[in-house]
């Protein structure tokens, strides 16, 4: 069904073809029925092997016939002497090799080869590696063969080091080989983990079962520097080869974030606690315990928004009266028992709210998109890429990598240059301009968070920056004033409900259609949505869950054209006293 | 110096409008030439073939033209003692065809014509200790089968029959440096596999475990100058990969990262104006498989002549609404 070019033919040619197909069909059906009948009769003999072989050599996807062959082979295994069995299986491997030559991408053939290899009394793994080498020399991207190779490597105990050398060879002969770079990404963390896993110095055996979840999946610094050099060679040789650039971005990636409670916030008046985690969780099932003044509390954890089953921010109500007296001091602890971690928070006398947290700057959250600390190395990487860009000013891969390097080195210092590079990127690769817009928005949000942290304020102001999407909203849990005016936002997503302290929202001059995220924001008082795309009363419904909302500016929205709209809004949002239409 | 971008050139006379009637005629006629050689050769995947045909007919509002009773009888005769369902009579049961059969019966709103409990038991028994699923009793492991298992059970409302946590753990262990997924732990990322794994994580409500920005970047880089999408770096564009990439992007909330207009033009150019149907690439032979994924792709791109398609199950949204199934999508 793939790659069959349609050819025009005459009526006579058609007729000839039809006759030929008719003949082929008869042969095929009689063979198929012969196989099915033999199987039904419980016959497991050489003749059945012959018959299925005829069909499978041209149609290796006929899975049931491989099953039948396996039944026959198992039967012969029981009946015959060990040496004979070895011969039968060797013959099977020879047959399979001929199948794979004709059709190297058949799931059925490869799986059957693995099955045969695992049953062979005396397996010859070197022969299997040789087969993989030959197959990959014909098509170095055949993922079936790569997978089979990994199985052979695992079964025969080939060392990780040998396999890494294998990728060295392949990459050396052709840099443009995504499969080899991929394989390296699975091998390197095993051979050169970022943290020594154990004192034992046994060479590890290739076991591709190590996942990013169970392993740090990062590479130690020394090896990382060598890899930079290798990849640089690759993209200097062929700057348009995406494989090397993808790999390079992975090398530049940061280590996984430590799992922790990043913030605990308590409001005295609201009798409410909000907790931020370093990753989205489903709080009711991770063993969350809230202790107030030494007493574990029975509380109900609510996600910041019902659409987010897994959320980085969770909220709970405290028992009525438990913290409301301003003359009392209280001590709160939230335990994340599954991860054996916790965070304390003290609510002092006279204070209406309190929090305890590691800020984005404390955690080096955005700066360390890179795990390497050696600024000088990154600096020289940046220089090399800049040189390459002079030769290839339109090269999008190089532009994007320069942006990533600049962010790793000094996100605020390079802000202007980053923005300029984004503009070039959108020109040279306009197909992906939405991706670049969203990525640029992300970086602008990160920079604004950094500036806010350095200034130690709770005001987030990012207007007139072509923002197309919002992210990192869990980092804005404590923000009271947010200004997103004059951007290109389409919506305030459910994640916006993580801004548990927000009082004033300015989002004028966007194209916002959906206010889904303005949901249960206990402190929200003023919302300015002037000149947006709010069209229906239903679009405003989330706001009905914000009890303190008093001022709402909807001027310049299509909704203002609706008949009787004022009365409807007043009915929907009775707390609003200052409605601008 | 420099890699040539592998791509196709769309000829100026390639179709630019959607030929829905022709496609419906093509699919309606496809099943009627049962003594055709090519048709017989594809018997080993017949059940999926019927699913492709029926789904695309339903998306085009033409399901009524297919022979419902005959198809239902056929499915009943393909359920085996073990509960599993085979591609055709005389073939062995497999998760691939069990899912196709359950999808067809869900389209026809009659899953109870087969022994549902036995299907559930069949799927459950194929789960391995590490959480993975074998495709059948012969033990081939693949994340495609993880998807088939949970999709089948979700359509039957029986996800609780398996160890979902373990199943999730296995799929996540197949995640790669580029944010994508392969067949097994250590396997290279591939758009078809990414579709299965993001679909799996959607059905099991675990999409927050995906690195959506990284994966979305890899996926949108599949779009080539012709507008078509390939399934891996340095491969040719293809209508079926266009679906798998597009559906994955939809599932992780990043569908706007590709150029929708250009993709639409590519898919339309893969139509055969004479016979109806879609091919993998402009000028190739059409088949029901690419016809479904062409039409479903256009639906995801917002074509209003086609019913809305669900990106996870590749079935009409109205069908899933009827059974109350709403798989998670990232926003
Ligand atoms: Zn295809």
TrEMBL record, chain A:
Residues 195-206 have a biased composition (Pro residues). Residues 195-216 are annotated as: Disordered. Its EC number is 2.5.1.60. Catalyzes the transfer of a geranylgeranyl moiety from geranylgeranyl diphosphate to both cysteines of Rab proteins with the C-terminal sequence -XXCC, -XCXC and -CCXX, such as RAB1A, RAB3A, RAB5A and RAB7A. Catalyzes the transfer of a geranyl-geranyl moiety from geranyl-geranyl pyrophosphate to cysteines occuring in specific C-terminal amino acid sequences. One of its GO terms (molecular function) is Rab geranylgeranyltransferase activity. One of its GO terms (biological process) is prenylation. It is an enzyme of class 2 (transferase). The keyword Transmembrane does not apply. Residues 261-360 form the Rab geranylgeranyltransferase alpha subunit insert-domain domain. Belongs to the protein prenyltransferase subunit alpha family. The keyword Nucleus does not apply. It comes from Chanos chanos (Milkfish). SUPFAM superfamilies: L domain-like (SSF52058), Protein prenylyltransferase (SSF48439), Rab geranylgeranyltransferase alpha-subunit, insert domain (SSF49594). GO terms for cellular component: Rab-protein geranylgeranyltransferase complex. Keywords: Leucine-rich repeat, Phosphoprotein, Prenyltransferase, Repeat, Transferase. This is Geranylgeranyl transferase type-2 subunit alpha.
From TrEMBL, chain B:
Belongs to the protein prenyltransferase subunit beta family. GO terms for cellular component: Rab-protein geranylgeranyltransferase complex. Heterotrimer composed of RABGGTA, RABGGTB and CHM; within this trimer, RABGGTA and RABGGTB form the catalytic component B, while CHM (component A) mediates peptide substrate binding. The Rab GGTase dimer (RGGT) interacts with CHM (component A) prior to Rab protein binding; the association is stabilized by geranylgeranyl pyrophosphate (GGpp). The CHM:RGGT:Rab complex is destabilized by GGpp. Interaction of RABGGTB with prenylated PTP4A2 precludes its association with RABGGTA and inhibits enzyme activity. Interacts with CHODL. GO terms for molecular function: metal ion binding; Rab geranylgeranyltransferase activity. It comes from the Eukaryota. Binds 1 zinc ion per subunit. Keywords: Metal-binding, Phosphoprotein, Prenyltransferase, Repeat, Transferase, Zinc. This is Geranylgeranyl transferase type-2 subunit beta. It catalyses: geranylgeranyl diphosphate + L-cysteinyl-[protein] = S-geranylgeranyl-L-cysteinyl-[protein] + diphosphate. Its cofactor is Zn(2+). It comes from Chanos chanos (Milkfish). Catalyzes the transfer of a geranylgeranyl moiety from geranylgeranyl diphosphate to both cysteines of Rab proteins with the C-terminal sequence -XXCC, -XCXC and -CCXX, such as RAB1A, RAB3A, RAB5A and RAB7A. Catalyzes the transfer of a geranylgeranyl moiety from geranylgeranyl diphosphate to both cysteines of proteins with the C-terminal sequence -XXCC, -XCXC and -CCXX. CDD domains: GGTase-II. Residues 18-315 form the Prenyltransferase alpha-alpha toroid domain. Its EC number is 2.5.1.60. It is an enzyme of class 2 (transferase).
């Amino acid at each position: 069904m793939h790659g069959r070019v349609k050819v025009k033919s005459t009526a006579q040619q058609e007729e000839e073809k039809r006759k030929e197909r008719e003949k082929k069909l008869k042969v095929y059906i009689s063979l198929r029925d012969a196989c099915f009948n033999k199987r039904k009769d419980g016959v497991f003999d050489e003749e059945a092997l012959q018959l299925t072989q005829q069909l499978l050599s041209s149609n290796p996807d006929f899975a049931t016939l491989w099953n039948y062959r396996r039944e026959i082979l198992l039967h012969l295994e029981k009946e015959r002497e060990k040496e004979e069995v070895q011969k039968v299986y060797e013959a099977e491997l020879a047959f399979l090799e001929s199948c794979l030559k004709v059709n190297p991408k058949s799931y059925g053939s490869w799986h059957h080869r693995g099955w045969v290899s695992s049953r062979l009394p005396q397996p010859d793994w070197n022969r299997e590696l040789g087969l993989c080498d030959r197959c990959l020399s014909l098509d170095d991207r055949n993922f079936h063969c790569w997978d089979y190779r990994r199985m052979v490597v695992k079964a025969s105990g080939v060392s990780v080091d040998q396999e890494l050398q294998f990728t060295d060879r392949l990459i050396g002969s052709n840099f443009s080989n995504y499969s080899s770079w991929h394989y390296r990404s699975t091998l390197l963390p095993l051979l050169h983990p970022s943290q020594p896993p154990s004192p034992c110095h046994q060479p590890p055996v290739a076991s591709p079962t190590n996942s990013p979840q169970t392993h740090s999946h990062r590479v130690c610094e020394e090896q990382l520097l060598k890899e930079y050099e290798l990849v640089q060679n690759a993209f200097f040789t062929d700057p348009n080869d995406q494989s090397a650039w993808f790999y390079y971005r992975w090398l530049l990636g940061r280590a996984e974030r430590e799992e922790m409670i990043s913030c605990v916030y308590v409001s005295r008046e609201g009798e409410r606690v909000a907790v931020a985690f370093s990753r989205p969780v489903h709080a009711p099932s991770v063993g969350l315990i809230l202790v107030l003044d030494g007493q574990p509390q029975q509380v109900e954890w609510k996600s910041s928004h019902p659409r987010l089953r897994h959320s980085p921010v969770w909220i709970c109500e405290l028992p009525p009266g438990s913290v409301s007296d301003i003359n009392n001091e209280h001590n709160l602890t939230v335990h994340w028992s599954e991860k054996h971690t916790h965070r304390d928070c003290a609510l002092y006398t006279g204070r209406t709210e309190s929090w305890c947290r590691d800020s984005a700057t404390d955690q080096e959250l955005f700066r360390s998109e890179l795990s390497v600390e050696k600024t000088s190395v990154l600096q020289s990487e940046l220089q090399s890429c800049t040189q390459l860009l002079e030769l290839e000013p339109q090269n999008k891969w190089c532009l994007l990598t320069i942006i990533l390097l600049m962010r790793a080195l000094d996100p605020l210092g390079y802000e202007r240059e980053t923005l300029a590079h984004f503009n070039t990127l959108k020109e040279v690769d306009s197909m992906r301009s939405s991706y670049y817009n969203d990525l640029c928005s992300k970086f602008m949000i990160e920079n604004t968070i950094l500036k806010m942290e350095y200034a130690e304020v709770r005001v987030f102001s990012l207007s007139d920056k072509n923002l197309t999407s919002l992210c990192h909203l869990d980092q804005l849990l404590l923000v009271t004033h947010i200004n997103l005016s004059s951007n290109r936002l389409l919506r305030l997503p459910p994640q916006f409900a993580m801004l548990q302290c927000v009082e004033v929202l300015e989002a004028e001059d966007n194209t916002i259609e959906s206010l889904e995220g303005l949901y249960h924001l206990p402190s929200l008082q003023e919302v300015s949505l002037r000149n947006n795309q709010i069209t229906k009363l239903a679009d405003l419904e989330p706001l009905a869950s914000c009890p303190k909302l008093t001022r709402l500016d909807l001027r310049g929205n299509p909704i203002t054209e609706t008949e009787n709209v004022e009365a409807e809004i007043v009915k929907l949002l009775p707390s609003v006293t200052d409605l601008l239409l | 110096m420099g890699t040539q971008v592998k791509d196709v050139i769309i000829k100026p006379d390639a179709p630019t409008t959607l030929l829905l009637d022709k496609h419906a005629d093509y699919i309606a006629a496809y099943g009627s030439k049962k003594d055709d050689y090519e048709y017989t050769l594809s018997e080993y995947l017949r059940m999926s073939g019927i699913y492709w045909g029926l789904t695309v007919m339903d998306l085009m509002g033409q399901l009524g033209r297919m022979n419902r009773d005959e198809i239902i009888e056929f499915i009943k005769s393909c359920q085996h003692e073990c509960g599993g369902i085979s591609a055709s009579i005389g073939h062995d049961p497999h998760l691939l065809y069990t899912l196709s059969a359950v999808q067809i019966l869900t389209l026809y709103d009659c899953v109870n014509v087969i022994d549902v409990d036995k299907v559930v038991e069949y799927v459950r028994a194929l789960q391995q200790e590490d959480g993975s699923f074998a495709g059948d009793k012969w033990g081939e492991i693949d994340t495609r089968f993880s998807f088939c298992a949970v999709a089948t059970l979700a359509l039957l409302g029986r996800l609780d029959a398996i160890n979902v946590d373990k199943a999730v753990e296995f799929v996540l262990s197949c995640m790669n440096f580029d944010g994508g997924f392969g067949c097994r732990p250590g396997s290279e990322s591939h758009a078809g596999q990414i579709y299965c794994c993001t679909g799996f994580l959607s059905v099991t409500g675990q999409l927050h475990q995906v690195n959506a920005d990284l994966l979305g970047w890899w996926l949108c880089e599949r779009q080539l100058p012709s507008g078509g999408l390939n399934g891996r770096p340095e491969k040719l564009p293809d209508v079926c990969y266009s679906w798998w990439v597009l559906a994955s992007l939809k599932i992780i909330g990043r569908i706007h990262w590709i150029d929708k207009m250009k993709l639409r033009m590519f898919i339309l150019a893969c139509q055969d104006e004479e016979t109806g149907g879609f091919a993998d690439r402009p000028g190739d032979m059409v088949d029901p498989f690419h016809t479904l994924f062409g039409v479903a792709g256009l639906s995801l791109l917002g074509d209003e002549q086609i019913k809305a398609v669900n990106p996870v199950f590749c079935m009409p949204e109205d069908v899933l609404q009827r059974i109350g199934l709403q798989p998670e999508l990232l926003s």
